[in-house]
Amino acid sequence: MKSLIITKLGGSAIxxxxxxxxxxKDVLKNVARDISILMEQYKFIIVHGGGSYGHFxxxxxxxxxxxxxxxxxISEINQAMLTLSNIISATFLEKGIPLxxxxxxxxxxxxxKKLKMHLRPIEYALNSNLMPMLSGxxxxxxxxxxxxxxxxxxxxxxxxxxxxxxxxxxxxxxxxLIDPKSGKVIRQIKWQETLKFTNLIMKTQAPxxxxxxxxxxxxxxxxxxxxIEVRIGNITKERGLYNLVAGKGIFTKIT
Length: 255
Fold this sequence. Notes:
Layout: E1 3-9, H1 11-14, H2 25-38, E2 42-48, H3 51-60, E3 66-68, H4 71-94, E4 99-101, H5 104-107, E5 108-111, E6 114-117, H6 120-127, E7 131-135, E8 137-140, E9 146-150, H7 152-163, E10 167-172, E11 188-189, H8 194-198, H9 212-224, E12 229-234, H10 240-246, E13 252-254
Parallel strand pairs: 1-2, 1-10, 2-7, 4-7, 10-12, 11-13
Antiparallel strand pairs: 3-9, 5-6, 8-9, 12-13
Helix pairs in contact: 2-4, 2-10, 3-4, 7-9
């Protein structure tokens, strides 16, 4: 039986966050090529970030992480994320990967502060030899016009908690978590040390309503706390994702 790997394609890796609606198709092709090889040995669930699609619209409309919004704005964010999902899906299909996009607002729902994940569509996709894909997106509350923006990092944590994968990969456009003092990649972190390392993380200038690198590290630590190894590294390089899964090259490991 194939082991399960959950993989986050970070928005900074697959889009140019400084240019609205700009997907890095060369990076997506490299990632698809890696997965087409790895899928012979592993099952994957893909999660992708919003990058210059969702984040751009959120910033333009000055939305907070949660609250109330005009239905047209909610629709615009959702449409932007679907557009990026479709670009990824088309690229993967070209490499013979049966990617199956699951609409995040249909899988996740809010009741006040409680976030619920409807797992059966994910399980059914895996059982049908499809590769489920979710994304960070806007999620609706039962209260009228109330929303929350749920990041791909939170979705990774939820998937890890429920499905207990072999490995969790966070793909970025850098080689791992960088120590700003030395400029070198922090090679290994114990999840108990996370709070110490979050103080080292440099703030990004790119718009990111979902919390940026510091928030990502906190979610990754929660996954590692479950006994699941987390690897954070660069997927924009040739064979970047392949090497992360294989444990080769430079990356940050959280255990």
